[in-house]
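PROTOCOL LOG
Step 1. Enter all chains and additional molecules of the complex.
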Amino acid sequence: MVDALGRLVGDRLHVGEAMRLEHGRSETHFAPMLPDAVVFAETTEEVAAVVRLCAEYRVPVIPFGAGSSVEGNTLAVHGGVSLDLSRMTRIVAVNTEDFDCTVEAGVRREELNEHLRDQGLFFPIDPGANATIGGMASTRASGTNAVRYGTMREAVLSLTVVTADGKVIRTSRRARKSSAGYDLTRLFVGSEGTLGIITEVTVRLHAIPESIQAATCSFETIGGAVDTVVQSIQLGIPLARVEILDDMQIRAVNRWSKLDLPELTTLFFEFHGSERYVAEQIETVSALAAENGGGEFRWASRTEERNALWKARHEAYYAAVNLRPGAIGWATDVCVPISRLAECIGETKRDLAASTIPATILGHVGDGNFHVVFSIDPDNPAELAEVKDINARMVRRALAMDGTCTGEHGIGLGKQDWLVEELGDAVGLMRSIKRALDPANILNPGKVFAF
Amino acid sequence: MVDALGRLVGDRLHVGEAMRLEHGRSETHFAPMLPDAVVFAETTEEVAAVVRLCAEYRVPVIPFGAGSSVEGNTLAVHGGVSLDLSRMTRIVAVNTEDFDCTVEAGVRREELNEHLRDQGLFFPIDPGANATIGGMASTRASGTNAVRYGTMREAVLSLTVVTADGKVIRTSRRARKSSAGYDLTRLFVGSEGTLGIITEVTVRLHAIPESIQAATCSFETIGGAVDTVVQSIQLGIPLARVEILDDMQIRAVNRWSKLDLPELTTLFFEFHGSERYVAEQIETVSALAAENGGGEFRWASRTEERNALWKARHEAYYAAVNLRPGAIGWATDVCVPISRLAECIGETKRDLAASTIPATILGHVGDGNFHVVFSIDPDNPAELAEVKDINARMVRRALAMDGTCTGEHGIGLGKQDWLVEELGDAVGLMRSIKRALDPANILNPGKVFAF
Ligand SMILES: Cc1cc2nc3c(=O)[nH]c(=O)nc-3n(C[C@H](O)[C@H](O)[C@H](O)COP(=O)(O)OP(=O)(O)OC[C@H]3O[C@@H](n4cnc5c(N)ncnc54)[C@H](O)[C@@H]3O)c2cc1C
Ligand SMILES: Cc1cc2nc3c(=O)[nH]c(=O)nc-3n(C[C@H](O)[C@H](O)[C@H](O)COP(=O)(O)OP(=O)(O)OC[C@H]3O[C@@H](n4cnc5c(N)ncnc54)[C@H](O)[C@@H]3O)c2cc1C
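Step 2. Run joint prediction.
Step 3. Record the structure below.
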């Protein structure tokens, strides 16, 4: 098998310990599980050939993008081949008039936006990490501006996918809408590499708005911050970005990113539109903030200030984990209907107050989605157990509010039991689909659910 | 079997010819295919019981909403039970703060909006017919304001579904976003009753905007009208509605709905937002229209005028078919990337000019989606053949432009060959999913594809 792989991809096959560890470890608290080999693919045809070989030998194949997922999604539970797509970085086509582009799965979101900038376009979805577009499609990722522009569910128009038997399909045409059969695009989005390997992605783009204004605003209470967001949305204000960071998270960010924000619960806002429309949005939202105990808006007027602000937000996870040197991170990820958000965050905050483990709250508050980031001492197993417990309370609380155990990170290894608690018999249907599309269970086996 | 059904549902079982015909005919050119029986279900549990019975006897069960679909989607190809959900009209919950509601599948879009109006909310998706929300989910329907608010793909948050073995599942929680496993919600949306029977639907709602302005604008050329729309979208104007009607369609509408619009290609616009923002949008779009050979905007300022305008648009299909008394209708439904739309409509218009069959063009131009409505003499088989031919040319043209054979009507019986031409091997995956979820092929058999 290894010989045959070598004949296919030459020196892009790696079996050394270091490379296998790099592909068999995780950003978070999961112990490493190494693949037997790592292959860097360069074309769709090559991906198909590797999958056919793995199918022949019944060897697992685990697609790998940037490896930034946080639920152990890329770990090689049953060994096999980690198929790294990060060298598939071709921008296949940018259709400026149609506001879409097609890229290979290994293109990263920051590189895509650099490529697009000159054309007045941008791709909105921005997880904290500089993830690959293929990986983001596979976890149904979102980010700071999903509140306005949607998640990968809304962003993906079409996919090129290598199926478990090594066939290459395209899930949809490039038209904005279609009723042509089952929605395979949305089925692969969020399937975490368990149903097929995405090699090309067509995504929607947006025009860089005439005016972009970003600001922070501190609040006396978390409730006041959340209420400001909920009321803004209810008034139809199309907030482009609205992130919540609690006092602990602001302290971490100040330290890590050298900012000087007041160490209070803070909203990070961004407004997009024409000059006039942005002014109107700001007028409304700042009035609401004032009514809800918010302070003055601190404007990040220049592009560099604005970029620094969002860079700090994107690094908030590392800022939080590094509240303790040498700590490991764990990010929870519940999402609830926004009417329940203040309550959900408030109760969570009380749980955190009762614990000695450093933890921050931050979230995509316009979507009802928030994270607790724990900074865990790796040498103290009691801490991991305690975090597991607090997380369990959070998830149960969110489910009781008709929310989900994962707003954007996916199931991976970490949330399989919660998936069943959340969706019950529906998980049986997912399993049937998995068995139908990958009967030999070679595609990222052991993820989302046991076969 | 019929006895057992009768024991289940009592006098809500019908085997009379008239009722069977009502459920086995179509709005369009398909010949009737009657079910053996019609059952009116009243609860999810009853739907599940009927499905279990049909599964036991291996009898087809065809879900039926309002029967307004246009590709023969509800015809009983293999007989069986037409399961009519139109009496399941309970509004289960309206969550005003979360902008969503849960309704039984038989609720119709107009009734839902009447229910919501007092709460300042609306449900945007509006096919011409007063369809059921379950039927609309099942065809992935859209309407005049999909350009702003999306289609049923974006509108549906969660579904309650009875599966082929009579289990009841819920596809998702009510949170706005989730990465919890495969996207079953989107899989059932657009599956035309072939994978499960939807009994409840949770949909997103929107706030009725502070200001709504509607207008019509006539153009010298179709190209000028389409360019106005494309340029508006490229400038980021959030058009709430923008519909194109060609000269023939305007003639038909004037006659049918007693309007007096100039008989030229016309755009029907609607703008939503705050007073100020709507004024700004109108300023920009009317300037673009003028540059593209558009006339003055004719405003439908009062609510009644506006409603009359959209009523006329919604009845445009009947207006077109009735260009000839006693004619039958056929509505085509291609959708292309908007950069190709003017060309696609232009070439289609040339095909129509070469034919003697009355035909109109109208469409959801902001989505790249348009229809030709033919008014066919039922006693002249040559006409049906000619329309088939023109439609084939349209679909091939759309596919060559990376478009789809159906923007919103679905595959049903009418587009099965086109589905394969459009998506090739991907249809094999759809088949595998169908076999996995409905191994005995009892759910609306013979639709979308042969088993
Ligand atoms: C600091 C930090 C901040 C983050 N913030 C966010 C956030 O705001 N929002 C958010 O959604 N996530 C966030 N994440 C999580 C992570 O960035 C996302 O899950 C991202 O989508 C993973 O992309 P990737 O390229 O790293 O994929 P990987 O981690 O390499 O893979 C993710 C999963 O997808 C599969 N996969 C990868 N590529 C393909 C492919 N081409 N075809 C099929 N399957 C494939 C893998 O097998 C795996 O199951 C954050 C992570 C970090 C470390
Ligand atoms: C004048 C006119 C204008 C139209 N304009 C538009 C338009 O602008 N946009 C558009 O998208 N469509 C349009 N249509 C088509 C039609 O209205 C849509 O296809 C609509 O979604 C059908 O809904 P229905 O309730 O009538 O479903 P039905 O016709 O009863 O059923 C449609 C399909 O869904 C299945 N089904 C129905 N209910 C369920 C359920 N509860 N669970 C599972 N499967 C179910 C049926 O088996 C069938 O396959 C128009 C039709 C007409 C006659």
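Step 4. Note key features.
Chain A touches chain B through 92 residues (CB under 8 Å).
The CA atoms of residues 190 and 296 of chain A lie 39 Å apart.
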